[in-house]
Design brief:
It is a single chain. The protein is α+β, with helices and mostly antiparallel strands. It has two domains: 147 residues, no CATH class; 65 residues. It has nine helices and four strands. About 6% of the residues have low confidence.
């Protein structure tokens, strides 16, 4: 992990739990540097902690075993599968961030500790609809390019060589989708292929979190080194800290 370079002692969040939750590691890279921190940020970050399921998002990347495996023994993590989720609260945070009405307040990356076997399976499933048409096209092309076969096809119909290539591409894609479906059915008993079915994601959903992109496919981004900066990347120990009460400003007596 990158060594912390916190130095802005004049920041109103310096050294607090809120600062640790933001987890910027370096004051020079913090978006609050050079500005007076909005007191409401403390309330926003307190709400962020309340919206965390048991174990918090840190439990996913701190796991010593693969979080996508269902069967025991689970594999040893070699990478992280990143899946972004968002929450509509706090609306005030969305307004401050973008200066206009937004549907997203909190955004957090879920970093699933992932073994090499699960990673290989997910990537193969994703690439099958792309690989299959390429393979079929490479098989058909020699027959279209070799004059003996091409001439025979043109004699049957002038458009036949072109149709053969198009059929290879479209048929390959359809075959790839079918193979991906069958492959998914085979491996989903052993791992969480769609992370939206993961118990932790289900717990997040119960607290109002939703996938950042609401399409039919749960896209995962794989990284060897986990994200270590920003909201949602702080270790689990930070969530257990107690945020000291902020003293109310003293009233100046009227003369």
């Amino acid at each position: 992990m990158e060594q912390s370079r916190l130095s802005d002692t004049e920041c109103t969040l310096y050294g607090t739990k809120s600062c640790a939750l933001l987890h910027m590691l370096d004051c020079d890279k913090c978006p609050l540097k050079g500005r007076v921190a909005d007191p409401a940020i403390r309330d926003d970050l307190k709400l962020f902690c309340e919206l965390q399921p048991e174990g918090t998002v840190a439990s996913l990347f701190e796991s010593k075993t693969c979080t996508l495996c269902k069967d025991e023994p689970k594999g040893k993590p070699t990478s992280y599968a990143v899946f972004d989720m968002a929450h509509t609260e706090p609306k005030a945070l969305a307004h401050r961030r973008f200066l206009q009405k937004q549907e997203t307040g909190f955004m957090v990356p879920l970093q699933f500790a992932c073994c090499s076997k699960c990673r290989r399976r997910i990537l193969l499933r994703a690439y099958l609809p792309l690989i299959t048409p390429i393979v079929l096209t490479m098989i058909v092309l020699p027959f279209v390019m070799i004059e003996h076969f091409a001439q025979a096809m043109r004699q049957a119909a002038g458009w036949l060589p072109f149709a053969a290539v198009v059929a290879a591409i479209l048929g390959g894609y359809a075959l790839g989708k079918l193979l991906a479906y069958l492959y998914t059915r085979r491996i989903e008993q052993e791992m969480y292929v769609d992370v939206r079915t993961h118990p932790f994601v289900a717990a997040m959903t119960e607290k109002g979190w939703r996938p950042l992109f609401s399409d039919r496919t749960a896209h995962l981004a794989f990284t060897k080194k986990r994200l270590e900066r920003g909201l949602g990347t702080a270790p689990s120990a930070v969530y257990a800290q107690e945020e000291p009460d902020v003293p109310e400003p003293e009233e100046v007596p009227e003369e």
